[in-house]
Amino acid sequence: MCGTTLKSFTSATPRPHFEVDFERHYRPSSRRRKEREQGASPSRTSSKHINVSQAESPRGREGSRQTTTRLTAVSLPSPRDRARGKDFGRDLDSGEALKDDDEARRREACESLRTLVLGSSVEHSPEKEKEWIAQHRRGTEEEVETFCHCWCQMDVDADGDVDLDEFAGFFSKRKVDRLLGLRCVRYLMPRAGQAGGQAKAAVTKEEMMRLMWPHATTEDMDYMCTVFDHGRLRAIEVQPPKMLPRKRRNELLKCFDEMDRQNLGLVPYSDLIPAGVADQNMVKVLRDKYDKDSTGNFDKNAFLEMMAPLGYRAHPSVSRVVCKDGKEVRLVQWSKDHLHFEGWLSGRHYEKLKATYGFPE
């Protein structure tokens, strides 16, 4: 060995042995051996490595400066940390997958509901994302009115929401594809049950409109709800009662003139008894119903209302009529934005909707 003995070579500056992991990370075998002898855990040992850097040594050979090795301990992630990192990434992937799956189910339910209500479906493709969003943002008046017509048929009890039985019963009567209806029910009903916490899941018109037009803004929803309110009144409107026949009207007016001897235009309710029109008990009933001002008198219009047959309007200003079957119909007026409605509603719908539309008592 060129004049150098083994003893002189080993007595020189200690030269630690290193193992290379081919990533420029080094671990001294001598230190690892000592840790194993002391009972250190392999995971702790494997979680550290020695980084080798060069430093100048004051001892040189042949007048030149010699570089020695400087050992620096650097922490590396342990196998447990690496496993946690993999699990975290897996959780992120699963969360994104759930979001993608929910989005796919929402679009599937959207297209199914549009097919059931509007009768047409537009296939969606990623290349036409902007067109899809624009189409599913705000419905036209015709589309909203079509949806409103279906809603009024589904909401049999007119309570403002539709449960599973009403939804399934409506589409089964129309004999449409059951798969389309099941897609809508599977998407809407679980969410309605979670939101309301009630035993019987139900959805509102706003939730169903959100599904049909998923990208609608608040302004779009306000507009469509206004169109819906107008369309609902038109959908539940009943036929107006007939006007009192002219011949019958003239007979009643002649009877009134005979009772109004002083030509005051007013007749006391008590005069109905001697005229043979009503007995004492009937007079009490008529007075409670028609004598709103408690004056004890009635005019021509009030007399026509009292004497008109069931189902007939005594005069044009009458807004409440009792039909032959005993059910009542009411004349209502409603206006909002550019929409206006004036028509007759059944007493049941009137009572259900008077708070929503602000109808008078």
TrEMBL record:
Keywords: Calcium
Coiled coil: none
GO MF term set: calcium ion binding
Superkingdom of source: Eukaryota
Positions with biased composition (Basic and acidic residues): 16-26, 79-105
Region annotation (Disordered) ranges: 1-105
UniProt-listed PROSITE patterns: EF_HAND_1, EF_HAND_2
Chain ranges of the EF-hand domain: 142-177
Biased composition (Polar residues): 1-13, 40-56
Record protein name field: EF-hand domain-containing protein
Source organism (scientific name): Effrenium voratum
Source taxonomy: Eukaryota, Sar, Alveolata, Dinophyceae, Suessiales
